């Protein structure tokens, strides 16, 4: 990204007109909970709890200045009233039907929003069974060759923009987790990727086709699932060439969110760690998809990377060299979207004496994910108007496996991630960076 391309302060383009939020996986639990939730907030029926863009504040200048505006007052974000929702799914359900099937929100709320929700219907998906084994697609594009599928996706985007009179769009992948693949030769450069597109190469997944269509349409792309998708040199190169922001991957919501809250604390006080066993039960459609080994592996790899980076065993071998980290996800239909997670954390302290921490998190997966989708949609639109493009590392706060430049390592500590995000906003608004140094208050 070229520094001179960045627009700061008053030069950031205004959030004028309506913003389209395109979601592959539109009829899923996360998308439907997000969209119904935004509408409930717009109607004054509920609060956008968990959303930094809606409820968060940012300190500016010295503590003595007492300048702590809300983030949405500090930067020029799209208003909730200006958001319009669309996307794709392999099921034809409108959003009212999708909310009822997902069973995340109370029926009364869904009924109150019925008119609005029924009016939102997906476009037919781009789907390949090899990438999601446990779902049977009912509603998908009949084209078989990749270039035709990309053209069809771009036509949907144009149709959506025209019908809704949109100024701008963002795309957030809320589709199912795809089968595990590792980066191949065809992913290494845009030239090779485009060559592979022409040959319908099996290493290109549907999420990559959506991402390609988005970037080619000048639309930022955020990946909420652990699939590779834009986390390959070819699509990073394309995003840079086209000056489009990209971010990912895998929303950080339940167990991993807590892990990246607890682990930095253990490390900060130099307590040792012997092992961390994490297990989950969940019974939603996401759980069904993850019940297949290929998709499960994609998720497990994403969840496992967190501790290694936070604890830095190469820097603290006495404390973290042999950590036994195990993650399990079990599909258990009776729980639906209400996931239950258990963590058994074996730590040791002074002179090596052992202790244990047990965490039992009874969470609601989509309730935790919805504000993350909202923030990512608004921040990625803001990034584009500020002239940022390529990988948006400052949005790491929202991801289990944050994307970053190749020669860097990802930052997983939630508190460092938040500081990174807020300092990026301060930088763009030409405010001083805050280091929390503090001695300056005491020096004469
Ligand atoms: N809920 C969370 O806390 C959370 C956290 C991290 C990541 N995620 C990820 O977010 C994604 C969505 O989660 P969810 O709980 O809503 O799952 P879900 O199964 O309810 O929704 C996914 C939707 O994607 C659709 N889909 C599958 N393949 C598609 C394709 N090729 N094109 C368009 N649509 C397609 C499915 O039909 C389904 O409606 C999953 O990948 C999940 O792993 C969720």
From TrEMBL:
<dbReference type="GO" id="GO:0008654">
    <property type="term" value="P:phospholipid biosynthetic process"/>
</dbReference>
<dbReference type="InterPro" id="IPR036291">
    <property type="entry name" value="NAD(P)-bd_dom_sf"/>
</dbReference>
<dbReference type="InterPro" id="IPR013021">
    <property type="entry name" value="Myo-inos-1-P_Synthase_GAPDH"/>
</dbReference>
<comment type="similarity">
    <text>Belongs to the myo-inositol 1-phosphate synthase family.</text>
</comment>
<protein>
    <submittedName>
        <fullName>Inositol-3-phosphate synthase</fullName>
    </submittedName>
</protein>
<dbReference type="Pfam" id="PF01658">
    <property type="entry name" value="Inos-1-P_synth"/>
</dbReference>
<feature type="domain" description="Myo-inositol-1-phosphate synthase GAPDH-like">
    <location>
        <begin position="254"/>
        <end position="366"/>
    </location>
</feature>
<dbReference type="GO" id="GO:0004512">
    <property type="term" value="F:inositol-3-phosphate synthase activity"/>
</dbReference>
<dbReference type="InterPro" id="IPR002587">
    <property type="entry name" value="Myo-inos-1-P_Synthase"/>
</dbReference>
<dbReference type="GO" id="GO:0006021">
    <property type="term" value="P:inositol biosynthetic process"/>
</dbReference>
<dbReference type="Pfam" id="PF07994">
    <property type="entry name" value="NAD_binding_5"/>
</dbReference>
